[in-house]
Amino acid sequence: MTVFHNLNMPLDFDNNIEVMAAQVRGTTANPAQIQPFELKYLPTNIEVEMEYVPETMIERTHTDNRTEISVTVKGIEFLGPNLETLPYGANPRFPVLCNTFDRIFRTITSEPEDFVVENTGVDIFCSSYELLPNDRIKIVFMGEKLGIVNGGLTTSVLAYTAAIQQDLDLVRVSCRIWCLEDYEEEDFVEAADARNTCLLYTSPSP
Predict the structure, then answer these.
(1) What is the number of other CB atoms lying within 10 angstroms of the CB of residue 76?
(2) pTM higher than 0.90, yes or no?
(3) Do 89 and 187 contact (CB within 8 A), yes or no?
(4) Alpha-carbon distance 47 to 6, whole Å?
(5) What angle, 0 to 180 degrees and rounded to 10, lies between the N-to-C axes of helices 99-110 and 152-163?
(6) CA distance 144 to 155
(7) pLDDT tens-digit profile of 93-144?
(8) How many helices (H) and strands (E) does the chain have?
(9) Any bridge partners for residue 175, and if so which?
(10) Rg for the chain, CA atoms, rounded
(11) To 5 degrees, how large is the angle CA 95–CA 48–CA 163?
(12) 3-class SS at 12?
């Protein structure tokens, strides 16, 4: 991922760092290791370029102001030069250490070719995009609520895996880029909440 800052300001990660203790599952002979890990994510009002796998791009126009781009990208394309991820925007959940984190990590490191099938991928809200030559796409995030709306845990595991110098070259990730024009910030928040909320099912009374 190539990063461009649109506001002529230096990238400041002071307010964009989550310190995590990443646990990797072990065995009786080799216990699990817990390592501190700083997850860095880009601020909003940013412009990035990503390269996608050839012949995987599908563009859909749902309404006049809602366009979806579906692509498959290498895992490393979600990370900037300092292993920072895309902005988190309206995403109500920051990555947490859990069994899913561990399972994603094990798939990336032991069965990378299966990752695109076993993982639900990443959804991104942006203000605009531009398809570029050589299978590249420019994505613009001009607004505080734009960025990753679903798949934050996936991107955090990709960042952790790269940080411990594991190869991501064989990892492919399904990515859906939503361009939503003429929307209010609360619309992004509502959509992000809908994609990240799990409610306990209660059966109706007889």
Answers:
(1) 17
(2) no
(3) no
(4) 6
(5) 50
(6) 19
(7) 566 667 778 888 889 999 999 999 999 899 998 888 999 999 999 999 887 7
(8) 4, 11
(9) 71, 122
(10) 18
(11) 45
(12) coil
Q: Please list, in sequence order, all residues whose beta carbon lies within 8 angstroms of the beta carbon of residue 183, skipping any fewer than 6 positions away.
A: 65
Calpha distance 159→79 (Å, rounded): 7
Q: Is 186 left (phi over 0), alpha (psi -120 to 50) or beta?
A: alpha
Query: What letter does residue 127 receive in the DSSP assignment?
Result: S
End-to-end CA distance of the chain: 54
Whether the predicted pLDDT of 160 surpasses 70: yes
Name the amino acid, one letter, at 93. R
Which three-class secondary structure state does DSSP give residue 139?
strand
Q: Where are the beta strands (DSSP E) in 25-84?
A: 33-40, 46-51, 58-63, 66-74
